[in-house]
Amino acid sequence: xxxxxxxxxxxxxxxxxxxxxxxxxxxxxxxxxxxxxxxxxxxxxxxxxxxxxxxxxxxxxxxxxxxxxxxxxxxxxxxxxxxxxxxxxxxxxxxxxx
Length: 98
Known about the structure:
Elements: E1 7-11, E2 15-19, H1 31-91
Antiparallel strand pairs: 1-2
């Protein structure tokens, strides 16, 4: 019966983990560890891809919201300028005709 050996697998998502394969999985060439490592890398890539897609979607939403804020700010400034002009016209003293 082969001795159990621990393989340390490095995953960019989860950091390093220790894996103890079962007796039937132990092989002298480390094929089991390679398969496990490849599967972890695939899962990590899928996770990173999902996070990237979510970040992209959130970025698109923020860009849309920012565009609306810019347009609202421009509209508010226009309304403010118009209100100030109307206020100045109201406060002007009419010239009395003689």
